[in-house]
């Protein structure tokens, strides 16, 4: 039982660590990428981020409804760690690959920046809404839930630390501002780590209380 609990603690924390390998990179370096690499002005970047907040508010609500209506054998929340892993990683990299598609057309750059930013934001929601909702299903013991939350916070911090400590050296190593794809290479490395962590999380968490409830209904 002890080993099983530890696996679940690590699995639960791993999902948030995965998210924190990607989202802090988006928050910290995407504006720099837009202004320094794509040469967008601050007003255009502001419009992209402000408009995206309205879309994000809608997708948060919709994902909550989707999770609530999900009835899969593997759980209500846990499947989305696996479902969202590849799309989150793919669109995170695509967000930093705009020069490949839009050349020097400013209108297309802004359009693609808006689309890709909202796609990666939506994929983040697909993973993190279930992550926030899964805790009550993991354990009925309040003390164990507190331990799970602690593991989540610590491992999320570890993910953020990796981005803070390694992102800029990696970007510079891949060419920095001289190479438009240095950001894509960097987020690509973090994205691979995020995929592995989300797969690990899926494999090492169980919605125990949900399974018990299903057994009672079927008996």
Would you mind describing this structure in some detail?
The structure is a single chain. The chain is mostly helical. Helix content is 83%, strand content 0%. It is built from 9 helices and no strands. Helix 3 (79-95) packs antiparallel against helix 8. The longest helix is centred in the N-terminal third of the chain and has 36 residues, at 2-37.
Distance between the termini: 26 Å
Based on secondary structure, the structural category is: mainly alpha
Instruction: State the order of secondary-structure elements, H for helix, E for strand.
Output: HHHHHHHHH
User: What would the average pLDDT be, to the nearest integer?
Assistant: 89
Q: What is the 3D shape?
A: globular
Largest β-sheet summary: none
Radius of gyration: 19 Å
E-strand count: 0
Q: Roughly how much helix do the residues carry, as a percent range?
A: over 70%
Oligomeric state of the chains present here = single chain
Proportion of residues in β-strands: under 5%
